[in-house]
Amino acid sequence: MQPKKKAILISLCVSIALMLAKFVAYFLTGSNAILTDAAESIVNVLASAFAFYSIYLATLPKDENHPYGHGKVELFSAFVEGILIGLAGIIIIFKSTYDLIYPNEIKQLFDGAIIIGATGVINALVGYYLIKTGKKHNSITLEADGKHLLTDSVSSAGLVVGIILIQLTGFYWLDGVISIGLGLYIVFNGYKLIRKSVGGLMDESNIELVKDIVVILQNNRQDSWIDIHNLRAQQYGADLHIDCHVTLPYYFDLTAVHQEISNIDQLINVSGSHQTELFIHADPCLPACCNYCKMQNCGVRQEAFRAEIAWNMENVTKNQKHFNQ
C-alpha cells in the first residue's frame, strides 16, 4: 500500500475508535465539555474518510482530461475538512451556551478525564505521524488531517485540566465555559485550514517554495543566465508546477537555448525537495542587460560589465527584466 494511503487509513481507524471512547466518557459523566470533544470526533471521522478518497484520486496518473494530474483534489479535501471543523466549533459554542444557562448533572469526572486524556495522547501521536508523512510525500491532505488531530489533542488536554478543576472546585458552570473556549479554538483552526486551501484553489503562489527555488538558482547561476523573472510556483498535492522567464544571449541558437533550459530543469529537480514540472520561457537579451551580464568574450557587448544583480524575491518574481529595477 502507498505510504499516503496507509497513513490516512490509520488515521481513519484511530478516529473511529477514539470517537467511540469519547462517547463512552460522555455517557459516564454527562459532561457537556466531553460531549463537545466527542462531537468533534465525528468531524474527525468524516474528514479522514473524505481525505482517504481524495488521496486515492490524487495518486491517479495524469490523463487526457487532467493533464496536470489530480493533486488539486487534496486542496478541496482540506477545504471540506476546514468547513467541517468550523461547523463543529459553531455547534459546540451554541450548545455550550445553552447548557451554561440550563446546566445538567455531571458525575464520574475523573473517569472521563482518564479516557479523554488517553485519546488526546493517541491523537497527538497519530497527528505527528500524519504531518511527518505529509511533508515527506508533499500531501496537504495528510498535513491538514495531522494538524486537525493535533488540534483535537490540544483541546483534549485543555478539557482534562478543566475537568480536574471542576472536580476540585465544585464549580460546575466551568463545564460550559470550557466548552465555549474549546469551540472558539476549533473554529479558529478551521478558519486557518480554509484559508490555506482556498489560497491553493485560487492558484496562490507558494511563497516558501519560491524562496527555496530562488536560493537554488542564485547559488548555482551560470553566466549565460542573464536574469530570471516572473517566477511563480503552485503546488497541487504532490505535484509542483513552476513557470518563469529566463533571459539568455540573443545569439544562442535553438539547440543552445534548449540545453540551458534543460540545465535549469535538472538543477531544480536535483537540488529541490519536490519533483517539479517547469515551464520556462526564454527571452533574448537587450543592450540594456550588458551592464550586469557576465558572459565572457561576448562579441556583441555594448556596455562593460559593472555588477551582478543578486536574485531575490523582489526581482525574480516581477514580470520584467532586471535592468528595470
From TrEMBL:
Cation efflux protein transmembrane domain residues: 8-202
Pfam family name, one: ZT_dimer
Membrane-related topology note: Multi-pass membrane protein
Ranges where the Cation efflux protein cytoplasmic domain occurs: 223-285
Localization of this protein: Membrane
Transmembrane helix found in the keyword field: yes
Primary location: membrane
Transmembrane regions: 7-29, 41-61, 73-94, 114-131, 152-170
Keywords associated with the record: Membrane, Transmembrane, Transmembrane helix, Transport
UniProt family annotation: Belongs to the cation diffusion facilitator (CDF) transporter (TC 2.A.4) family.
Classification via PANTHER family: MITOCHONDRIAL METAL TRANSPORTER 1-RELATED
Family matches, as NCBIfam families: CDF
Name of the molecule in the record: Cation diffusion facilitator family transporter
Organism, as annotated: Pedobacter albus
